[in-house]
Design a protein that fits this description.
Length: 273
């Protein structure tokens, strides 16, 4: 993927940098500097971008992945050829800025759960082609990864339920075909659906877009039926509501917000004279 992104940016050649070079390709030093506060993520991938252009490039992170940085803080130092550093600058920075933005917003959500045992998990709402990297960034920010793809686990959602004619039919048909280790999660929107999922032995029950009061009833019902069943809450989770939702006693809160609503963390590169 990194090679493809470099090809996209470079095209038939970096006209500007190549125009600067005559017979020499001098060895230079550059620094990456944070222009805003946030969680740093993606530096190992950024290093690889430069090394694809020149394997001798040295990229040393001075701020660890997952640590807060402040405006003006040097987060990495690079030594390499002028051609490699200037040509790879944009792809490397774009990647780190995007992933750092995701990690930063993820951390803000995680901090809302600091007093509770509930864990934050991400979703499959990711940019096509970037899922592994975006999920890496949520993990750096402190979240746990939900399923990476459709083959990781069974999640029976509203449209599956409608297609099967109910939760009972959906669980029965799917359980008859899936390999033993896979778990079955069922998305529910009402107490009646929660009861049906319990009766047919769902491993995980998602409480989707439920009012907090209904969610509390659902959690109590599930715990009384089988305390080993995991409970996940999802739907319209915000920084303002996540603590209240988690306080209902769910095991997990899932949200796409850290990926879909995050802003890039502003980073820049400066050549040292």
């Amino acid at each position: 993927m990194l090679s493809a992104w470099l090809i996209e940016d470079i095209g038939r050649g970096d006209r500007t940098t190549q125009g600067l070079l005559t017979t020499e390709n001098p060895w230079i030093t550059a620094q990456w500097v944070a222009k805003a506060s946030g969680i740093v993520a993606g530096l190992p991938f950024a290093a690889r971008v430069f090394q694809l252009l020149c394997e001798k490039t040295s990229f040393v992170a001075t701020t660890n992945e997952g640590q807060w940085c402040q405006p003006g803080q040097v987060i990495a130092q690079i030594e390499g050829s002028l051609n490699a550093i200037l040509t790879g600058e944009r792809v490397a920075l774009n990647l780190a800025m995007r992933l750092s933005g995701i990690a930063t917003l993820t951390r803000k959500y995680v901090e809302q759960l600091a007093e509770l045992p509930t864990q934050l998990v991400d979703t499959r709402k990711t940019t096509p082609g970037l899922r592994l990297l975006e999920k890496y960034a949520t993990q750096v920010g402190g979240a746990r990864n939900h399923r990476i793809g459709l083959d990781d686990a069974v999640m029976i959602k509203d449209n599956h339920i409608a297609a099967a004619g109910g939760i009972k039919n959906a669980i029965a048909r799917i359980r008859a075909q899936i390999p033993y280790p896979l778990t079955i999660e069922v998305e529910t929107e009402t107490i009646e659906q929660v009861q049906e999922a319990l009766q047919h032995q769902a491993d995980i029950i998602m409480l989707d877009n439920m009012p907090v009061e209904v969610m509390q009833q659902a959690v109590k019902l599930i715990r009384q039926y089988d305390p080993h069943i995991k409970v996940e809450a999802s739907g319209n989770i915000t920084l303002e509501t996540i603590y209240q939702v988690a306080s209902t006693g769910v095991d997990y809160v899932s949200t796409s917000a850290p990926v879909t609503q995050s802003s890039w963390l502003d980073l820049s590169m400066k050549i040292k004279s």
